[in-house]
User: Fold this.
Amino acid sequence: MITDNPHNKAFHMRLTQKEYDNLHANAKRAGLPLSTYMRFMMKACQPKEQRPVDWFKFYSQLCRIGNNLNQLTHLAHRTGSVDADMHKQFRDDFDMFIRALMEDMYLPEKLDATRIVKEAKARSRQEQ
Assistant:
């Protein structure tokens, strides 16, 4: 069988029961398979947790608000009854809010690798 999957190397790692449970719980909260979660961790990124169902309702409502804002924009241009500069600033602020929301919800956070290594060494010394 021919496969295009570049992930063809494996390694074995021993964990305590607590480490194992935490690893699986973190991967599950992120909504990722364990292997994908580990790849994020190796790249010093912490994937975001999976969004709750209510978040998608919230996002959908924000999209509706944006759509209504677009309709008001067209009406304002046709009738000339809205201050265009003020309206443009409002639109720009709304767009910036949506972008920040999406980044906050989806982009993985960079981890401080130096801090993580120091903490791991300190834990290792405590366990000895």
Notes: The first helix runs from residue 17 to 30. The beta strands are 45-46, 109-110. The helical segments are 17-30, 34-42, 53-79, 84-106, 113-127. The first strand starts at residue 45 and ends at 46.
